[in-house]
Amino acid sequence: QVQLVESGGGLVQAGDSLRLSCAASGRTFSMYDMGWFRQAPGKEREFVAAISWSGRSTYYADSVKGRFTVSRDNAKNTVYLQMNSLKPEDTAVYYCAAVRTVGGSTWKPATEGDEYDYWGQGTQVTVSS
After folding, report:
1. What is the C-alpha separation between 73 and 64, in angstroms, rounded?
2. What are residue 114's phi and psi, to 5 degrees?
3. Dihedral of the alpha carbons of 117, 7, 124, 28, in degrees to the nearest 10
4. What is the Cβ-side half-sphere exposure of residue 121, based on CA atoms within 13 angstroms?
5. pLDDT tens digits for 65-104?
6. Which whole-number Å values give the CA distances from 50 to 73, 78, 85, in the listed order?
7. Measured distance CA(122)–CA(97) in Å, rounded
8. Which of 34, 19, 29 is nearest to 74 (CA)?
9. pLDDT tens column, 49-68
10. 3-state SS of 4-48?
């Protein structure tokens, strides 16, 4: 069982930066690949970024590539989402999610919500123009 708690959301202006954190419970955090998703009002949840259990591999949605960076600190059981050059269209509730790593020689990022086993409660990010 993994419990996830996001933090770091807030109200910012376009062009600003925010760093989201997702703290995980349990001693097996390093056995999980992690993902970030977001859901804007009236829209479906969408994939944002994923990171492998080791942190060595990452994957991003095209809409955030070059602006967002996902990272993790397994010693602190925490995954981060650094968001730079924020745009009004980035406004959403941001969720972190965990899926038990499959292993193998090639990492395949999980980009669909139903691939994940555990979810946080979300943190609101609002970007004003």
Report:
1. 21
2. -75, 0
3. -10
4. 5
5. 999 999 999 999 999 999 999 999 999 999 999 999 887 7
6. 14, 13, 19
7. 10
8. 29
9. 999 999 999 999 999 999 99
10. EEEECCEEEECCCCEEEEEEECCCCHHHEEEEEEEECCCCCCEEE
Alpha-carbon distance of 125 to 18, in angstroms, equals 9
Residue 64 phi/psi, 5-degree rounding, is -120, -5
DSSP one-letter code for 56: S
Burial 24-55 (b: 16+ CB within 10 A, else e): beeeebeebbbbbbbeeeeeebebbbbbbbee
**What pLDDT was estimated at residue 7?**
98
